[in-house]
Amino acid sequence: MQLDQPLTEKEFDELxxxxxxxxxxxxxxxxxxxxxxLTAIAIGPETIMPAEWLVKVWGEDASATPKWKSAxxxxxxxxxxxxxxxxxxxxxxxxxxxxxxxxxxxxHNGDAILDAExxxxxxxxGMELRPGSWQxxxxxxxxxxxxxxxxxGADEIEEAELKEVDDPAKAHKLAQQIEANLPAxxxxxVPLRKAAVQTIKREEPKVGRNDDCPCGSGKKYKKCCGAEAxxxx
Length: 233
What we know:
single chain, Four Helix Bundle (Hemerythrin (Met), subunit A), UPF0149 family protein, SEC_C_motif, YgfB-like_sf, YgfB-like
């Protein structure tokens, strides 16, 4: 299956069940938390490589990696997560205003209420991968657009702010604001987004100064091409 293919309903359920299974740690992300986490990574200030963000999906501790039955199972689950991420990336690239956060929904006093707390917690975890890099938006005119995510996702908020989230109806309105605000948050970072820092791997072994010069002259490297390289520095 190609990575650009969105998850089918069956695959979504399969990933959901794995994250909730006993083979995942108690701290593993749920689907709504994972969706918020991936959203922050997708639209944030820096490109973050999967090798860094994937480990956090399983829990805070590096030892929380799932108990895989086989390498094939690991490949399959990771593939599902990567496709889940690509759904987020593609939606923001093609139609950001159509992006729908994966919020929970439950009934309250006969009304359907959105619960964005787990999603926002995931988003906050994604921000914590590069906390300093997010500072520009907090210092910009768009800071108010980030506030609902802060109120529902931060580990701690001020006591005076609790009244803004102490009722399901209030939390529902914050969830609606978040969905409306995300396209503008994404747009803010587009011109500022930094590429990931990559390490360039040396394809050929390094030549020691006392090794034979690879040019075939029969001289020591330091007295042949190495001497020329030193002269150029």
